[in-house]
Amino acid sequence: MSSFDFLLQGLAAAAQPMLLLYAFIGVLLGTMVGVLPGIGPALTVALLLPVTYGLDPAGSLIMFAGIYYGGMYGGSTTSILLNTPGESASIITALEGNRMARNGRGGPALATAAIGSFIAGLIATLLLAFLAPYIVRMALVFGPREYFALMVLAFVTVSSAFGDSTLRGLTSLFLGLALGCIGIDQLTGQARLSFGFPDLLDGVDVTTLAVGMFAVGEALFVAGQHALDRDQVLPVKGSIWMSRRDWARSWKPWLRGTAIGFPIGAMPAGGAEIGTFLSYSAEKRLTKHPEEFGNGAIEGVAGPEAANNASAAGTLVPLLTLGLPTTATAAIMLAGFQQFGLQPGPLLFATNPTLVWSLIASLLIANLMLVVLNLPLIGLWVKLLTIPKPWLYAGILMFATLGTIGTNPSSFELGMLMGFGLIGYLMRMFHYPVAPIVVGLILGPMAEQQLRRALSISQGDWSVLVQSPVAAVLLTLAALGLIVPLVLRAMGKGQVLQAVAADED
Amino acid sequence: MRHFTLGALFAAVLAVPAMAADYTIIAPANPGGGWDQTARTMQDVLQKEGISKSVQVQNVPGAGGTIGLAQFAEQHKGDPNALIIGGYVMVGAVLTNNSPVSLADVTPIARLTGEYEAIVVPAASPHQTMADLIAALKADPGAVSWAGGSAGGTDHIAVGLIAQAAGVDPTKINYIAYSGGGEALAAILGNQVTAGVSSLGEFQSQIEAGTMRLLAVSAPERIEGVDAPTLKEAGLDVDLQNWRMVAAAPGITDEQKAAITADIEKMAKSAGWQEQLASKGWSDTWLAGADFDAQLAEDTAATEQVLKSIGLVK
Q: What is the mean pLDDT of residues A197-217?
């Protein structure tokens, strides 16, 4: 039987009413936890694992798939509407998405995120179905030096998230890098900058920082503006649906986001966030409307949202073909497989084709359900913005706190959340962008570890970093991204200069 | 009066979980890992076998379990309903992190499961046997890179012990730490490192598929169904097991300890538990009472010595 026959069979199996119900429950739960700041899909799947002991393998895996995709999507809703990302993969979405919402275009922003997620999920799931064994072989080419080169490229491109001032952006980024040094050094096991607090040994949690900076910081900022005019509500301008122009500007970013997100998700140490960083900067460089970036450009929502959903599907490539979970959620899905006596790995496609294909089929169904569930909800979500601000932000604060306590019941963690909230508030007051600090915390430790692993394997020989073709290409791209704008500026090319200046902020 | 009612209501809400849960199991790690899986499997079996009506699992992640351990020892003192999962990794983490709370500050109940370590090389590696790998290690310790889990963990200790047994200075080993056996797996498959060390279960499916070569296992005797010599057969006097245990709170009475031990023993001997072990590929390494206490003391002393010789603990 060919892969295609298997897929059709899987679709037929997954389309049973009971399984559809499981898919629906999964998608609903996933969206809900994705929306709540701090509560991630990993925790939800872990909580639901015992519930699924009674279900058959297909049923519970389908539910997991729904939660996974739903969580990836749900995070974007709060990013866009409230500037409070629920997951680290939706931080970039907040940059343009929230601007759009503030301009009264929350509807189209949510729609482009939903449809982009659907298209990315669809394409990526099909790629997973037909190309997984080949993709994983390519992903394995990535060793420490290639990852380090990828991180360098991400560092260079991330400057497009800096906002209006490069100096302020860099300050924020370096604060994040400094926070990234806290905790046990993974390669030597020694504690750094923990000042004797055992709670700091594991470093600063990205979710705590992101929720503190965005959700708590935003709430304080709104409260501090004494602009709590009870009547001032963001008006929804124009249609809540996407216009023809929105479609025309969205479809290419959706495809590009998918193309960037999927392979990075498939890499064993990629991570969904990196795909969103790269996608955002790609859109910013390619757009015909550079002036809109920073003020609500739809491309800046469409691309990263497609990228984070594509990388969610990409994550399943190493999980199914190597038995290698690359995210916490995937690790729990692995536990789910094992609960049914299945060992994901190179032989899974051969020994258990029915189950693998029903999982892939259920991913397609979950994906479709997500868009069906969420498009009608957009009208409702947008109404969220009409809730009087004191109530709305009180609610956000409550969920942010509950989410943090729920994942890690420690008063120290809660203190950190509030501390970061305060820093986020001060940064907003003085016009420092808050995204780079989170980006620094994500990228810094990854880049450091990969560099040191590469040097450790080569026994201290730095030339190894450029000896691999993949790493050399990535580093060259990064160097070009850094140097070309400078050269163009120095040469004083009129129009090019202006375009680049707009590009760079 | 209103305040009183509110207060009573609040107290009632607080009291409900304590009454509803027979056991609260602390998994001192993130969801998904071995300790979390152990806790959730216990939850399932304890409830299904009717040993306990309601069991809750709480994750307190961080620093090789030492955060959860410290919180447990402090918050649950004298609480006969609280349990914590621990393991060999915790012994090392307590030492490397200078944790003020160690396994001696809680009440160890029993060792439940264990996994042996596997030493593998990529399929394309020139090393066919453990002897080849050791020869390379002796020739130039730095040139042999070992991928495994976190620094100071079981995998790292295994490499230290192997080097020591082979007469190589353990401080010279080139150990590349990954966040877990899974991430190390990608590095081994991608030919990025010379060899890999992790629990046998992590590598099993790759070994079966022929993408990795299993050189040796760290069991005292050959494992049934696994086609590889032990390290002892390969001439290295190393025998190491990554075990997982359950402990109760400090300050409980002897009767309470006996009751908990009886419950856990009932669970470990049940058909449901054995089924779970089989499906997860964990071996039953049940050990309780004075034997377990002695084993724990022995492992702690040995680990401290190894970590000192690797240079992780001063």
A: 83
Task: Find the length of chain A.
Answer: 505
What is the crossing angle of helices A435-457 and A166-180, to 10°?
A: 50
Residue A492 belongs to a domain = yes
Domains B17-114+243-309 and B115-217 share a fold: yes
CATH 3.30.230.80 applies to domain B115-217: no
**Which residue range(s) make up the domain with A106?**
3-500
User: What are the pLDDT digits (tens) for A48-85?
Assistant: 666 666 667 777 777 877 887 887 777 788 888 888 77
In tens, the pLDDT along B73-131 reads 878 888 888 888 888 888 888 887 777 778 878 888 888 888 889 999 999 999 999 99
Which residues of A are less than 8 Å from B199 in CB distance? Answer: none
* pLDDT per position as a tens digit, A287-320: 888 788 878 888 889 999 999 888 888 888 888 8
Q: For chain B, how many residues are written? A: 314
User: Is A177 among the domain residues?
Assistant: yes
A252 sits in the region (left: phi over 0; alpha: psi -120 to 50; else beta) called alpha
Q: Where are the domains of chain B?
A: 17-114+243-309, 115-217
Superfamily of structural domain B17-114+243-309: Bordetella uptake gene, domain 1 (3.40.190.150)
State whether B179 and A201 contact (CB < 8 Å). Answer: no
Q: Is residue A409 part of a domain?
A: yes
Residue A254 falls in which region: left (phi positive, over 0), alpha (psi -120 to 50) or beta = alpha
Contact A340 B63 (CB under 8 A): no
Residues 208-267, chain A: which have Cβ within 8 Å of B? none
Confidence at residue A166, expressed as pLDDT on a 0 to 100 scale: 76
The answer to whether position A218 is within a domain reads: yes
A165 by Cβ neighbours in 10 Å (0-12 / 13-18 / 19+) ranks as: middle
CB-CB under 8 Å, A268 with B183: yes
